[in-house]
């Protein structure tokens, strides 16, 4: 898309934004932290058999603390997140890292093919391309086999997908819901153009969930090696998902049902959507879902508090990095107190405006000691972080105002030394394909790009 088209769509969007509730604000996380610290409530952990005792919960957290360098993130951050969400910290989960679309799609196809009872798929984008049709064919096959398939797609994210694509699914018995249709007269509560379903969730038989940043689109199906060998090859989209098995899957199922009901989808019954779940691994997992509202921006609170309590390292990747002041302050203060803060951001982009807005923040971060890298071989679309080599998150949440304020988002927080090691290995691989932004060079840049970034930053809430 040309820069002229970007500006046209941008100002069109700004002109109609007030119609869709654009005056919301992000919560003050410092207040949330202070409130959480005033309570002496013990951490509560849920197992496959239900809530375990405070004594056992404390023992689990103590064992985890002893496995890594001393850090307050396990106790203090957990207290903050527990104060703003009802989603429990669950034990006994197996979490598998899925780096890139090829690995994610292979995992998705494998679990879909094994489905016996139901398949719930929720995605911001489902395209009518080679990848989308492959998913559709497999879902149609499973529906024909007697497996109930339920699909939620976002009406803006999938606006280029013809209605016939989804009608074909409906005609076979698959239940399909379009989130917040573009037509404001459609039968939905609290219609808003900017309220989008940005989640990507696949749940099979209520026992396995795959979530992250990957949509259903051919852009995730390409190989990064082709791009390295041939600059004219299709740009590879670098993204990350995870597969979760264990008690945490029920929390993703609850989010799916909540969205389905709010969107007035057809009744879902006659299936075992919440089976008994056995423990499958050793990871502690919390499912963090956000919906618009002052007290519901849980992924934002999650990120700010995790950065605030970091003591050793913050290694983050994010695709649309347009942070608010609280995130910038938390990152700069972390670097100034000696935390190793490294952030990998896109160097190749599908939005020049987002890239300019992203670069507006470089100077202040670099001055404080934050190390910034731009991924140069792929279009970075991952939304991940690993803190103090024990706290990790993977999900759909971008560091921009659309994600932080207006979208339905979902992240998983994983407390596990073993999983954090896998995350660090992946991060190191991304660093190898990234170029570090050096402060001495950055501060000498010409005036024109500085003015361009300053101007675009005036409208960051609409990017």
What's the CATH architecture name of the largest domain? 2-Layer Sandwich
What value does the Rg take, in angstroms? 21 Å
**Count of extended strands:** 19
Euclidean distance between termini CA atoms: 15 Å
> Mind describing the biggest β-sheet?
17 strands, mixed
> What's the CATH topology name of the largest domain?
Endonuclease, Chain A
Q: List low-pLDDT spans.
A: 1-22
Tally of separate domains: 2
What is the name of the CATH superfamily of the largest domain?
A: Endonuclease Chain A
Count of helices?
17
In one word, what is the shape? globular
Helix content: 25-40%
Backbone structural class: alpha/beta
CATH class of the largest domain: Alpha Beta
The multimeric state of the shown protein is: single chain
Average pLDDT: 89
Provide the β-strand percentage band.
15-25%
């Amino acid at each position: 898309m040309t820069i002229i088209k970007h500006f046209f769509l941008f100002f069109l969007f700004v002109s109609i934004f007030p119609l869709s509730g654009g005056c919301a604000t992000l919560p003050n996380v410092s207040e949330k932290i202070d409130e959480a610290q005033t309570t002496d409530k013990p951490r509560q952990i849920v197992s496959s058999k239900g809530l375990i005792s405070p004594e056992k919960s404390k023992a689990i957290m103590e064992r985890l603390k002893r496995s890594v360098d001393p850090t307050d993130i396990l106790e203090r951050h957990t207290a903050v997140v527990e104060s703003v969400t009802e989603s429990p910290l669950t034990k006994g989960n197996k979490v598998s890292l899925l780096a890139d679309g090829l690995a994610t799609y292979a995992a998705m196809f494998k679990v879909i093919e094994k489905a016996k009872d139901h398949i719930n798929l929720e995605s911001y984008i489902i395209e009518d391309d080679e990848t989308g049709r492959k998913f559709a064919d497999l879902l149609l096959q499973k529906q024909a086999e007697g497996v109930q398939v339920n699909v939620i797609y976002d009406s803006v994210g999938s606006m280029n997908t013809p209605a016939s694509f989804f009608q074909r699914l409906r005609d076979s018995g698959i239940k399909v819901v379009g989130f917040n249709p573009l037509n404001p007269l459609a039968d939905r509560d609290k219609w808003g153009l900017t309220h989008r379903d940005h989640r990507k969730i696949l749940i099979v038989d209520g026992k396995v969930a795959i979530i992250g940043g990957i949509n259903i689109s051919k852009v995730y199906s390409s190989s990064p090696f082709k791009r390295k060998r041939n600059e004219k090859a299709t740009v590879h989209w670098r993204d990350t998902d995870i597969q979760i098995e264990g008690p945490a899957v029920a929390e993703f199922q609850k989010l799916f049902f909540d969205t389905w009901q709010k969107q007035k989808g057809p009744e879902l019954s006659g299936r075992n959507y919440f089976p008994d779940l056995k423990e499958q691994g050793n990871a502690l997992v919390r499912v963090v879902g956000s919906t618009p509202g002052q007290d519901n921006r849980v992924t934002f609170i999650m990120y700010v508090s995790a950065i605030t309590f970091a003591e050793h390292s913050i290694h983050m990747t994010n695709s649309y990095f347009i942070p608010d002041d609280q995130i910038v302050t938390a990152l700069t203060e972390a670097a100034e107190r000696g935390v190793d803060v490294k952030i990998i951001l896109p160097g190749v982009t599908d939005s020049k405006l987002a890239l300019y807005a992203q670069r507006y923040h470089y100077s202040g971060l670099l001055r404080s000691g934050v190390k910034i890298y731009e991924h140069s071989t792929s279009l970075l679309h991952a939304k991940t972080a690993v803190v103090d080599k024990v706290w990790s998150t993977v999900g759909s949440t971008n560091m921009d105002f659309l994600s932080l304020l207006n979208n339905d988002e979902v992240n998983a927080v994983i407390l596990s030394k073993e999983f954090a090691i896998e995350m660090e290995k992946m991060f190191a691989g991304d660093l190898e394909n990234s170029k570090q932004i050096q402060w001495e060079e950055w501060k000498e840049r010409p005036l024109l790009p500085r003015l361009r970034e300053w101007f675009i930053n005036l409208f960051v809430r609409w990017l």
